[in-house]
Amino acid sequence: MTRHATDLTPHLKRGLAPLYVVEGDESLLVQEMTDELRAKTQELGYSERQVFTVMGAHFDWTDVFAEFQSMGLFADKQLIELRIPSGKPGKEGGQAIEKLVSMVQTFHEPGQGAVLPDKVLLITLPRLDKLTKSSAWHQCLESAAPIFVVQNIERVALSNWIVQRLAAQDQRVTAGEQGAQTLQFFVSCVEGNLLAAHQEIQKLALLYPPGELGFEQVQQAVLNVSRFDVFKLSEAVLSGQATRVQRMLDGLQAEGESAVLVHFAITEDIRLLYKIKSSMRTGKALPMVLKEYRVWGAKEKLFERVIGHMPFHVLEKLLQACHRVDGVVKGLRAPNWPENPWMALQQLAFLCAKSCSLSK
Q1: Among 185, 200, 225, residue at a domain's last position
Q2: Which of 94, 184, 263, 308 is the most exposed place for a label (fewest CB within 10 A)?
Q3: Average of pLDDT values for 19-39?
């Protein structure tokens, strides 16, 4: 029977089954789920643990079967983990899995009087396609074991996931628009890498006490991992310093910085310039608008210079370019843009820097 990942905790409170299957591509969530199961087996006296990783279709299943057949009278209870990273055990592997299921059911038939199974088998698989799920070996697993499926955390749900994880360590972002901005920044930095998100959240617990987190605190925590400050790049772009922009992009790429984060830094400035220009077109004064959008310090002077001479239609074209490159850094193709994310970022940064340079 297929279940959601959140169903594991209540399931384990009711008892322990001899066979579990965990499926999913989010390595962090799969790890947390299997850790919970391991902790439960240790609590119940399963002092031994064996791990087998099936690599390729010619894996030797002999040792796996031997572990199940060694049922000594005084043997310690044992957790056996079978990891199949590809999700494709092959024909021989599929038959072996069906045999293992049969062995589990034979050793733990109802009415044998055992309170707990002597051995617990945990099988971990990636997210499977429809064809694989319809295979005989997977159908066999479905009929014999609870299958816990770990769903991917998509972008629309990532903000709530971050909020929940922060709450678990007694932290929260500020309320209102500033909190939304903080979450948007966080999501853009870690989207597509849940493990990185988890590590950054843990870092916040180490750096700051329980309570409210401001945008600057979250921003600084993320920036501390880079020798090249990605937000200094936006200052170079706004200043129209093409040579400096190239040097910083090369440095950020060499350090392994996230292309998503670099795109966020460039796009946020263009989006903010667009909003400020739009407000000014309604008759608002520039100083008032800059204060409204919390632009101050060195960036305030840069914005004052650029916004006064940047035509609105140029900002519209730059925003469209940012949208195209957003797709590129996430693996999509865009007409007239390089497929390589860093080449696309370079082209975008040069386009923005050139436009800002003409505004001098």
Answers
A1: 225
A2: 308
A3: 92
Report the CATH number at residue 341: 1.20.272.10
Model confidence at 152: pLDDT above 90 = no
Domain count of the chain?
A: 3
- 337 vs 192, residue with greater confidence: 337
> Tokens for 59?
């894996």
CB 89 within 8 A of CB 54: yes
The pair phi, psi for residue 229, each rounded to 5°, is -75, 115
Within 8 A by CB and 6+ apart from 146, the residues are: 1, 3, 7, 11, 17, 20, 21
Q: Does residue 38 carry a pLDDT above 90?
A: yes
Q: Are 162 and 260 found together in one domain?
A: no
Residue 155 has pLDDT above 80, yes or no: no
Residues 6+ apart with CB under 8 A from 356: 237, 238, 239, 240, 306, 310
For the question of whether the overall pTM of this predicted structure is more than 0.70, the answer is: no
What is the domain-level CATH number for residue 169?
Answer: 1.10.8.60
Confidence of residue 197 (pLDDT cuts 50, 70, 90): confident
Q: What Rg do the C-alpha atoms of the chain give, in angstroms?
A: 27
Helix%, strand%, coil% for the chain, nearest 5 = 60, 10, 30
Strands in the chain per DSSP E: 2-4, 19-23, 48-53, 78-83, 119-125, 147-149, 171-173, 211-213
Distances (CA, A) of 297 to 59, 176, 184, 236: 62, 23, 22, 15
